[in-house]
Amino acid sequence: MTIQDATSNIPSKRGSSALSMAPRKKASSSDPLVSHGRHFGRTVFALCNYPSLLTNGILRLEQMEDTPLEDFPAEEQREHRVFEQLLDSYPGLLERLKDGSEEEILHVGELVGKGAAGTRGDDTKTLKSAILDWLSPKGEAIQPPLHRNSKIDHGFNHELTGSLLCPAGLDWNDPQTKENLRSGEMLVCGDQWPIFLYANHVYDPEDPWSGLLRSHLLTCAYKHVFTSPSSVDKEPKATQSGNARLHGMSSVTMGSIAYIATQVRFALSASSVFSRTDTTTDSETFYHSLLDLLEDPEESQEVDELLTWWNRQIFPASSAARRPISANSALSKIRQRRIALK
Q: Which own/partner contact pairs does 320-326 have at CB distance under 8 Å and 24+ positions apart?
C-alpha cells in the first residue's frame, strides 16, 4: 500500500483542527468502531473531532513524503500522533480508510466519535452522584447537603466543592478570594489547576510537581470508571473486571489520567452540561493543559514516576507497576558487572 493509495479518495483541503470537540451526530452503535471509540476516548484522546482527525491524518501522510513531522506546527504534530495511535490500536483501519470514499472516511470518524462521546456522557452521569459518596466523611453527611440530581449548589457555591476547585496557590479560606470566586469576579481559566489534583490537597509552590495528580479523589474516580464502581473501596486485585479488563488494559495511560481529572473537575463544578462552549468550566483548556505537561519530553522523569505510582494503585500486578531495582542490591551489582564486561 502506498501513501497515494491511502489518499486517493480524500479532498486535498485539510479541515480545522481535529483536537477539539465536534458537534454530536447520529451513528450506528453496532459497529465495533463505536466500542473502540469508547476506550480510545478514555485512554488516549477524549475531546476530538474524529472525522477531521482521519481526513487530516491521511492528507498529512502524503505531505510527510516531502516534509518531516517535526516541521509541522506543534498542534498538527500532536494531532498526527493521536491519528497514528488510533491506526495502531485498530488493525485494518488504514486499509478501510484507503478503500473507502470520502463519505466512508467521515462515517468511520463518526463511529469512533459516537463511542467517545457516548462514554464521556455515561461517565459524566455516573460520577456526578458517585463523587458525593467519596466526599462524605465516613459515617457523616455533607453539610449543607449537596444535591445528587442538580448541580446548582456545587462548584464555588458550596464550601466543600469550592475548597477542592480553588486554584492551587490561592487561599480558599481568605474571605475576599472566596467571594471573588463565587461572584465570578475572579475568572478561573482551564490552565489554573484546582487543589484537588494534589495529594492531601496540599500544593507546594517551590515544588509544584510534589503530589500532583496523586489525590485520593482521582484514584477513586479512576477505579470507578476503569475497574468497576465496586473496586473503589477495595484493595486492587491482579484480576479486575470492568472496562480495563474488557479492552485488555493493563497499565495507566497519560490520556486516561487527564480524562479522569477532567471528569472529576466537571463533577465538582456547578455546570450541568459538558460542553466545549462552556467558558465557565473551560474543560477543553484544562484537559489540553494536563496533556501538554504529561507529553512534554522535558518532564519525562517526573511523568514516568507518576505513571509508576498510578500503576501501583490500579494495576499492581502489571510489569508497569514494578519498582526499579534497588541501587545497592545484589541484583543491581550483578547487572552492573554484566554491563561492565560487555
A: 320/250, 320/251, 320/252, 321/251
Handedness of CA 303, 79, 112, 265 (dihedral sign): positive
pLDDT greater at residue 96 or residue 257: 257
What φ, ψ does residue 212 adopt, rounded to 5°?
-65, 130
Report d(CA 44, CA 338) in Å as an integer.
Answer: 38
Calculate mean pLDDT across residues 178-193. Answer: 94
Cell of 178: 472566596
How many CB atoms are located within 10 Å of the residue 6 CB?
A: 19
Provide the percentage of residues in the chain whose pLDDT is more than 70.
Answer: 84
**175-198: string of b/e by CB count within 10 Å (b at 16+)?**
eeebeebeeeebebebebbbbbbb
Largest CA distance in the chain: 68
CA distances from 38 to 45, 293, 294 (A): 10, 24, 22
For the whole model, what pTM was predicted? 0.83
